[in-house]
Design goal:
Methane Monooxygenase Hydroxylase, Chain G, domain 1, 170 residues
Length: 170
């Protein structure tokens, strides 16, 4: 079982590192949005996608290792958590302490990522609203608006024909 636990520690450590990287990229996203640097934002998003792909692969490895641990320990896979593993091997052991630190550090990184992602979402929403406002304002000065036409197809033509009939001098 020790080999499986050490593999799990390696996978959890790589996951934590990926979340740290995603946090760094999330702060880059914030800067790119604030500074309206679309090219840099595109690069950041591409790198984020790579990190997310790596996290997905690591999650699959972690799940596989957790299934193996469940078989070896006789614990139910559905109830198996990192905390349950720590309790099983002893929180005071070296491995238990490593797992505890990884669990806590990963939770902390995920919480930071959640906060930064929420901030970025709000920044993007605000930016889109500003763009929408500017397009409408510019359109109003030109006599048009980008607001969509929600009439039934052909209705505009019928309305135009009605106006044209009444606009003619008889």
């Amino acid at each position: 079982m020790a080999g499986i636990i050490y593999e799990l520690i390696d996978v959890l450590d790589e996951e934590r590192e990926c979340y740290e990287g995603l946090n760094t990229l999330a702060s880059y996203t914030e800067n790119a949005v604030v500074n309206k640097n679309i090219e840099f934002l595109q690069e950041v998003v591409k790198t984020e996608e790579e990190f997310v792909g790596r996290v997905s692969s690591l999650e699959k490895q972690r799940e596989s290792l957790m299934q193996d641990i469940a078989i070896v320990t006789g614990m139910k896979y559905q109830n198996l958590t990192i905390t349950a593993i720590i309790d099983k091997i002893g929180p005071a052991t070296e491995v238990g302490q490593k797992l505890t630190k990884l669990r806590d550090d990963t939770r902390q990184e995920l919480e930071k990522l959640k906060v930064q992602s929420h901030l970025n979402k709000q920044l993007l929403t605000d930016s889109l609203e500003l763009v929408d406002f500017m397009v409408n304002a510019l359109g109003a000065t030109q006599g048009y608006s980008h607001v969509g036409n929600y009439n039934r197809p052909g209705e505009d033509m019928a309305i135009q024909r009605q106006h044209s009939l009444f606009d003619k001098k008889q």
